[in-house]
Amino acid sequence: MTDHIKITEEDGIRIVRIDRVEKKNALTQDMYQAMAEALETMADSDLGAIVFFGAPEIFTAGNDISDFMARAMTTDLTTSPTIRFLKALVTCEKPMLAGVDGKAIGVGTTMLMHCDLVYASDRASLKTPFLTLGLVPEAGSSLLAPKIMGHQRAFELLVLGETFSAERAREAGLVNQVVADSELEAATLAAAQKLASLPPEALNLSRGLLRSNSEDIIARIEEESRLFAMRLKSDEAREAFMAFMEKRPPSFVKKAS
Ligand code: COA
């Protein structure tokens, strides 16, 4: 149980709100677990869509860095709540939407690649600093991002780690519409309501036709997580995490042996 994920239901829509503002909405294992359950239980519900929101000016700072350090000690990452959440994003049977205000970092950006509709405020920005943390892309993003935006833009986002403004993300095809922050929730919920009012069987079939093959994405998530688990234990990642915790720049210079 966690208080940092707030789940409400309104007019046939499930709203999942990330709420750990004091840590910039960084995601812990309990939070992934709560979000995974929210997605998994959509199938047997009468709900028409699920919507993700963060807090004003911060969608999420991505995975909690102390949690990364703890996970570096564990051997089996394939059964972690993180992987359960990522797989639930792939297999969720109802439309998924996100309304992004402020920063969406790491999984905050890669989870958007699974959503059916993404709205962003004009002050939103997307960034995946996997490489500066000594890590590799996750959440199936190495497969999905090139499909959405082409190899070069995906490389710029996932490998170079460049920040994409909301407008750049819209041009790249990852965001449907950029709106004023005061209009973000209304615009996202209006789209969710519209989806929920469509004939459910036709919607389900159409969504299945448009979405990429889920087995391919799950296979890629598993491949990425094997590498990710190895990288979490690497000297480079350890140095990057320690530098973040100690509020200093990392130093990746190899020591002479
Ligand atoms: N994991 C754990 N704690 C985090 C965090 C994360 N991903 N992101 C932010 N925090 C914590 C900070 O440690 C700080 O905690 P403290 O007040 O106890 O010192 C608090 O949240 C506020 O963060 P701070 O860095 O002071 O805020 P900021 O406005 O200067 O910067 C960010 C905000 C999001 C740009 C910055 O915190 C950041 O870069 N976070 C890491 C993002 C990241 O690399 N995520 C992993 C992606 S794979």
Sequence-ordered SSE layout with sheet pairings:
Blueprint: E1 5-10, E2 13-18, H1 29-40, E3 49-53, E4 58-60, H2 65-71, H3 81-91, E5 96-100, E6 103-105, H4 107-110, E7 117-121, E8 125-127, H5 141-149, H6 151-158, E9 164-165, H7 166-172, E10 177-179, H8 184-196, H9 200-210, H10 214-232, H11 235-245
Parallel strand pairs: 2-3, 3-5, 4-6, 5-7, 6-8, 7-10
Antiparallel strand pairs: 1-2, 8-9
Helix pairs in contact: 1-3, 2-11, 3-10, 5-6, 5-10
The chain binds coenzyme A.
Percentage of residues in DSSP E strands: 15-25%
Q: Classify the secondary structure makeup into a structural class.
A: alpha/beta
Specify the number of helices. Answer: 11
Strand tally? 10
Strand count, sense and closure of the main sheet? 6 strands, mixed
- Could you report the average pLDDT, rounded to the nearest whole number? 95
- Rg, Cα atoms, Å: 18 Å
Write a short abstract of this structure.
With 257 residues, this protein is of the alpha/beta class.
Protein described:
With 257 residues, the chain is an alpha/beta fold. Helix content is 44%, strand content 16%. The chain has helices spanning 29-40, 65-71, 81-91, 107-110, 141-149, 151-158, 166-172, 184-196, 200-210, 214-232, 235-245, and strands at 5-10, 13-18, 49-53, 58-60, 96-100, 103-105, 117-121, 125-127, 164-165, 177-179. The termini are far apart. Bound molecules: coenzyme A (COA). Coenzyme A binds at residues 23-24, 26, 61-66, 103, 105-106, 129-130, 133.
List keywords for this structure.
single chain, 257 residues, four-stranded mixed β-sheet, globular, binds coenzyme A
